Amino acid sequence: MKLIDNIHLRLKDDLATEIHSGSRLSIAASCFSIYAFEELKEQLADVEELRFIFTSPTFVTEKANKQKREFYIPRLNRERSLYGSEFEIKLRNELSQRAIARECAEWIRRKACFKSNRTGEYMQGFINIDDKNYTPINGFTTVDLGCERGNNAYSMVIKTETPHSQQFLALFDQLWNDSAKMQVVTDEVLDNITNAYKENAPDFLYFVTLYNIFREFLDDLSEDTLPNEATGFKDSVIWNKLYNFQKDACLAIINKLEKYNGCILADSVGLGKTFTALSVIKYYENRNKSVLVLCPKKLNDNWITYRSNYLNNPIVADRLRYDVLYHTDLSRQSGVSNGLDLTHINWSAYDLVVIDESHNFRNGGKVTTDENDENPRENRYLQLLNKVIRKGVKTKVLMLSATPVNNRFNDLKNQIALAYEGNSENIDGLLNTSSSIDDIFRQAQTEYNRWSKFPPEERTTKRLLERLSFDFFEVLDSVTIARSRKHIEQYYDTTDIGKFPTRLTPIARRPHLTDLDSAINYNDIYLLLSVLNLAIYTPSDFILPSRLSKYVNITSEEDYSGLTMKGRERGIRKLMSINLLKRLESSVNSFRLSLNRILGFISATVDKINSLDAGQGNTRTTVDEYDFSSGLDLDEQEDIFIGGKKTQITLEDMDYIGWKKYLDKDIETLKLLLLMLADITPEHDSKLLQLIDDLRHKFTNPINGNNKKVIIFTAFSDTAEYLYDNLAERIKEKHNLHTALITGSSEAKSTVRIPGRQRIKLDFNTLLTLFSPLSKEKAALLPDVNEEIDVLIATDCISEGQNLQDCDYLINYDIHWNPVRIIQRFGRIDRIGSRNDVIQLVNYWPDMDLDEYIDLKGRVEARMKVSVMTSTGDDNPISPEEKGDLEYRREQLKRLQNEVVDIEEMNTGISIMDLGLNEFRLDLLAYMQDNPNIEHTPFGLHAVVPASAGYPPGVVYVLKNRNNGVNIDHKNRLHPFYMVYISAACHAEQSEASVNVGNSNHSQIFINHLQPKELLDCMRLLCKGKETPDMDICQEFNRITRDGKNMQHYSDLLGDSIASIINVKAESDIDSFLSGVQGSLFTEEIKGLDDFELICFLVIHNL
Length: 1103
What we know:
This protein is an alpha/beta fold. Helices cover 39% and strands 13% of the residues. It has 35 helices and 34 strands. Strand 32 and strand 33 (1004-1007) form a beta hairpin. The chain is elongated. The model is unreliable at 62-75, 554-563, 638-645, 866-878, 986-1000 and 1072-1086 (pLDDT under 50).
């Protein structure tokens, strides 16, 4: 008898002396490792045979119920031990697994037979060599051989010889021949070992990665939160009109609505959020749920069309039945909206509310009072929360917005709060976060505030994202979907869809006001506008002190934007003054109309005063409000009546004589302006003449084939009418092309006359179908109509939610003050699936320096927000907030002069685009339905793909950390899994994350572990859909590595990748320490290779 302690004498060394040519081995052990074979392969090469018994069920046919995880997981670990146990990770990380597995498999085919205990009976392990016995043995691994330490406190093995060994020899033979207890599993062992060295398809490796990272997601799945396909929604017309990325979004939205009760769809402009939302509505309507769409009034026609029995409704067969109401209806107590009586409507009975342009609710709840500080009124947000969402049935909330965040994370929180009814406890338990949602957003805003103080060159989006916690991304991932056009182009197969067209450099026009030398110019007008007081809009400034008690709180300066009568008046005065600037910039005609309207209003008021002064009027004559909505753009029309009631002031309570002096002065200025503008007729309107010239050039020099289509956008319906009146017949006569006018505030017009339909009016949607026949499916909707429209003049009523990509040329006749609106306009033609190769944006800018124009607007705003009797033009500085807003607009408008900017790039930091991981979970879910056995896949597998533009030669390593200290700051969203893309050499095209590391041959971290979304996107692009190995590149890789025998280079790169993770962790610890965060430096020591397990790796190789 001999005692082997695996310290002074290793089991491996003793076995090596006992195994010789012709030996017969019998092993009963819990597992078999190819690395144990590698240690003894020289001795095992010439043995007579190996008989191996797995002492617990392993690779047996009757698999255990997966619900019994305490049994199933140990068994899975035993099976995976073929490729190395948990204590042989270091060996596996040397990447020699492929070569060893190949040798081992060949040896097994010649020498070995494996059987497994198929019962639940416990069997102790032992080894028999000829007439020698070693006992006890746990597994056949390098730990059991004494080559690795493992986690055993001691490992004592007793060696016996004949006659003591005879009982073990007989016991093994008895077990081996007991067919009731044993099942032959040699083929299963070989199949599994073969997996370790066969060529793997990139597609398979992608799903191996997803399975390991997201397997907990599969365990947590509930049928209740997954789309129920039995509803038949995938057979609907709308589902089959969706692109692949829209289908992904639809399924993800349903999952989020069911699990979290809400979701924000924030895909970029041009990605079809409306159709995606319609598919979600169809799903819930198929389940007999009641749906409400809340939208701005300007988007009404769009939503109404898709639920109506109209010929021009492309999804009419789906028979959608949702209600459509406006955001403003939330504050109305009576009246009719879209055929619904608001007095009787049951707001609380909707199962799903779809909020289009949900960013309008980003400021959260607020209660206001009237001018007497009475009658508290909830704003629209609280009305929505209290009477639609909290009350009645459980209401799910789907929000649509391309810009859900402005410049603070609370914008996002307020919208998400609609999903959890404003009570954070409703969602905290559903989120996989360590903090409450309130704390998460508080911490995120703190990090944003710190980041915003960085120098501009350091204030990158990447830097901000690295500062945010895992919990913040978990919230985003749970309740938002936000993809950019770049993401869709790069990571989705758009072969069948088409592509985004190429954007040509924008053309900038700066036409003069007129071609008349003697006429007024812009600077003259600005000078006259600067002396306008517009006191007509602020009568409360002139109430006699003795009568102020009748108008309680009228003088409060608490909030000039609308909480008091005085505040609201100043807001309107400011709005009207800025509106004059906007309308001048739009067209001389719109400006002239505004001057006449204001002049008429002031003159009528002066007449009242004169009558009263002459003793002819009623002493109780009141000053009533003007119809302010006339002449405003669509955004301002929706906001003008927020807060307070109409102004009602009795003239006898006013210093109307003093007021009249200001009114008379304004009348004089307005009349002078109108006189100086009188000569500027359409024939002398330089801007109109420039437009005519641009249209003529476009018609004679199309940029895509013979495509002559043009959209002309303007903010004002007056300008649109003016353009139509002066262009439509001219274009028809000279170019034989039809023109249409759509303003949303008046009836649509067109030069089209359809034979047989002369007396039938062409409505809004029919005109759009004739303008963009391919995208609007004219062949199916209007098959008998041959006419088309080539020029569309429109306001912002169609700047959202419309697919007009048949057109390739868009003219902004005026520049909307909100830069986002310019991008939304261009998004009508800048859409995926366009048949045009290129598209052109033409912007008509004011005929003055942009800085001067923006500063002028700022000065006017500051002057108009105070009393006309105290304003000097010098003592009203712009507030820091207003200054920041002006600077933001200045920066973005300057960019728009030279380039087309994506909407997600408009904000100066906060963007939630392309951060979600849900599409990967959905990928895995779909794959698992047909491939449930992926869980048996060994660790350490690889696939090879060719390098391409943007993806240099290198390796993507997928690792699992066995030490929680690496993620102590909660920055890695995939923890305990880590991904690193390391390039093998320097490359010109490096990502922002590229960092030199390690000792390998010029290795660089191309994408680091703190960018898991980018890494998974990369793997998806390089692997998904490639279901067979690329044998040419695999053979080249095998040649270089000598069939896996020489993997030192890739093992070094793995070491460098792990070093990069540790370095980032160390830098983060130091940053936190220096920032005053409590805690010790390096509280968890990370050793390196031993702390990371290699799951798989993707080799990106040059052909």
